[in-house]
Amino acid sequence: MAIDATLGNALNEQINKEIYSAYLYLTFADYYEDRGLKGFANWYMIQVEEELAHAKILRRYLLDNEYQVKMLAIAQPDKTFTNDMDPLIAAYEHEKYITASINECYTLAYEQHDFRTMQLLDWFVKEQGEEETNASDMIKNMELFGNDAKGLFELDREYQARAFTAPAMSM
Ligand code: OFO
What we know:
Elements: H1 5-35, H2 38-64, H3 86-111, H4 115-145, H5 149-160
Bound molecules: hydroxy diiron-OXO moiety.
């Protein structure tokens, strides 16, 4: 089935936003790497993998629905960080922005009665819920434990354990 052009364009732009998210999180990993917090850096490198996986799911979906995918220019991330909390707050804000963007895609699919795309986006809605929770939890953990060296060390060790699991979706 050919997808509606407006909805297709929105999903095509969503691919760009997901790849930008990966690019953004690379800069977060770079910040923590420089600080010697390799666990935090690992957490964001796994996040990079997740964002690229999201982009690939959307690309596959558009290709399977007769939409000609176009790779758009990726913007340069422009955030500068002055302390270890900054990237965590920026991540939470970014995830809320992505949630709003997914919701806009969902609204378009709903208006079109495009149930297939709504089903695809159901997964993204759930995923965004989890990502917002993760981002918010990281802020809370930093508030609670990040102010002393031992607490920060333990947090870093915990984030070191995060591993990438590919989403159970066809790409
Ligand atoms: Fe693609 O989930 Fe975050 O942004």
